[in-house]
Amino acid sequence: MGRTLPSITQVFLEEQGSFARFRRALRRSDQVALDDLFAAARQHLAAAAYAAHALPFETFLLSMLLEEHKEVIRLRRLVEELLAQKEKRLLEGPHDRQDV
Q1: What is the SS3 assignment for 64?
Q2: How far apart are CA 50 and CA 54, in angstroms?
Q3: pTM attached to this predicted model
Q4: How far, in Å, CA of 56 to CA of 48, rounded?
């Protein structure tokens, strides 16, 4: 007997394909961003297979959101590190400056 339900990968590819006309209508930079979002969702297909209670596209959107949030966290940490370095330099004072 064959499968009665498509795999999560097949569903993902169908959902992605259903947005082809939408994608073509976007500016090139937005097409790249949309492609990145779908690539982010693809990274979580194994986990999405366990979300049987949710609609597949909801799971893909959540995967996209998860990857975007990870990037926000990474950038937030980077900003905090840069601010801490700047504050440290300000507290240390102008060591390397030579008054002329």
Answers
A1: helix
A2: 9
A3: 0.74
A4: 8
What pLDDT is attached to residue 21?
A: 97
What pLDDT, on the 0 to 100 scale, is given for residue 28?
97
For residue 24, what are the contacts with CB-CB under 8 A and spacing of at least 6? 31
Tell me the pLDDT band of 4, cut-offs 50, 70 and 90.
confident
Sign (positive or negative) of CA dihedral 78, 39, 47, 58: positive
Helix-helix angle 8-18:56-92, to 10 degrees: 80
Q: What is the Cα–Cα distance from 60 to 39, expressed in whole angstroms?
A: 10
The single-letter code of the amino acid at 46 is: A
In a 13 Å sphere around the CA of 98, the CA atoms on its Cβ side amount to 1
